Amino acid sequence: MSSQHEHTAAENHAHRQEGPRNHYISFALSIILTILAFAGVVYGGLDRGFVLAFIVILAIVQAVFQMVYWMHMKDRGHLYPIMFIVMGAVIAGIAVFTAVYWMWW
Amino acid sequence: MAHAHKVKQYRGVMDWLTTVDHKKIGILYLAAAAFFFLVGGLEAVLIRVQLMYPEQNIFVGEAFNQLVTMHGTTMIFFAAMPAIFGFMNVAVPLQIGARDVAYPYVNALSFWLFLAGGVLMNTSWFLGGAPDAGWTAYAPLSTTAYSGFGMDFYVLGLQIAGIGTLIGAINFLVTIINMRAPGMTFMRMPLFTWTAFITSVLLLFAFPAFTVALVELMFDRIFSGNFFEASKGGNVVLWQHLFWIFGHPEVYVLILPAFGIISEVVSVFSRKRLFGYSSMVFATILIGFLSFMVWVHHMFTTGMGPVANSIFAVGTMAIAVPTGIKIFNWLFTLWGGSITFNTASLWGISFIPAFVVGGMTGVMLAAPPADFQYQDSYFVVAHFHYVIVGGVVLGLFSGVYYWWPKMFGRLLNETLGKLHFWTFFIGFNLTFFPQHFLGLMGMPRRVFTYLPGQGLEEGNFISTIGAGLMGIGMLFFLINIIITSVKPRTATNDPWDARTLEWAISSPAPEYNFKQTPLIRGLDAFWKEKTAGNKEMTPAEPLGPIHMPSSSIMPVVMSIGFFISGFGFMYKVYWVAILGLVGALLVMLWRSLYDDHGRHIEVEELQDEGVKA
To answer: Does residue B3 have a pLDDT over 90?
Structure first.
């Protein structure tokens, strides 16, 4: 029934040990990334297009951190969440792109 | 009772208000669906009365617009969808050998939110007029510039019901992924469970688009936003895209579970294994995927140019392939089977030709040059009624007759059932078949009258007679329910000699479903045991205490909170709106902080019931 949850005791133990450390690192990185994005906008001396691309890339990196560390996507047994997130992204992407393309371009 | 409980057990009305049992919630869903089906049916009959003769003055202008809008919205959102959720609740946990859905409390919340939304929208009849911009609510017709206060009821009602639908879909996804009995692999799941799974996926991905559209319309209407205000940079086509990105998967949300019911019924009453099971599963998934890629075929005349129209025309025609696979698989299942023609199988088998007619006109509509002619004519009305009535409704009635004994322990009367079927089926064809020709002769949809001497009289007259006949059919059904409900519970566990797991347990099912979780040894799990000479399923676990969730009134309280909040927004009394939302949030908080461990049904009680049965 639930092969995803059949962690061994040792694995669980290891999981508990490494868990908080990665969370601290990703939390710190998230804050740094946010500061970078904020600084990019505040600094003002940069090209508008560059700033836009810069903060969008930082946002994507942030989103990946959220998914991988905070939503446990790197752990075993998360195939269904990954599958559904990818499917949702594909469908939403196609829908948004097509609708926007034919409405405004 | 061998064992005393600490947990309070409710009786009577309180039991129905507090229940978290998927079987009872299924019955609630079906009862609500039946009520809204009658309301929507009444609206349909009134529409047909107005159109019976040319130039009548019974429901003119706005009154007619309100009837058309409410008929469509009620039938799709408050009759067909809850009926589908009803059957998913009744059958899916039993078919996969689970004791309940994954989140019983959320399941109750889904139902009460849906009911709150449905009731809120229908109160508009008494509060200054119903929504009148069509069930598609195209902007700018649905903005305050062109339509009345009624549209606010549409926006808020569907938004509240939509929350219920979305969390219901998530609930069934989690249930089907995680709670299958040992041995119940994905490729051994009954086809109704498969279609329920794909339907839930479609709802999960499609409903957010509609939620966004409704939020935008709500901002435009209530807070003077400009999403659909072209003079201020808004875009009215945005509504059409968002609505149909949701709306097209929505029609597959409706039809896929009907496909599932038909697959069960055709297979059981042909006494054959479903032909091409794996191709049926594959076709279901493919239809689900393609349903997201075709929404523009509702918008061919919007003016997106030949490239967009061609791409989406090809995509639309591609859906005919997996659908055709399904049709042929049902025919091959029937071929050479020893077919029983009882009420359930009559509804089920008549689904096939009726749906083929609707599907065929669908392919005709998918060709853009032809669609420019059909657009907004009665041909479209005939097409989608053949799909929705000839497909969804026939499938749902088949399910009603098929699962009634499992829900209530009583078999519906066969004579009345057949009367219901024949009057409804003949009435349905009389109503909608002439509408194809009315459309081709140029009669536009949503128009409240027509002139004499243009050849439209006969078709409209026949159509109205047919609608009356469908109404009479529904009377037979209501009489059948009343007569059956006063009879004793005599249904056996397995009245149809059926194949899937739900027929292995008593009718109606006990609250814990399976005393011991069954071991699944193949497709058509119960049939496999029967062919091996077993009367029951082989248990996969020893007899032990069964953990049950506690009943709770909180889902009702929370839904009332949203209901009150909806009225606050509509009448722009924002303290009421905030009060309602705060109430709902407090319930969430209470739910998060208060640990409810449920209760156990002990082994002695299970054995007591075993002796009684």
So the answer is: no
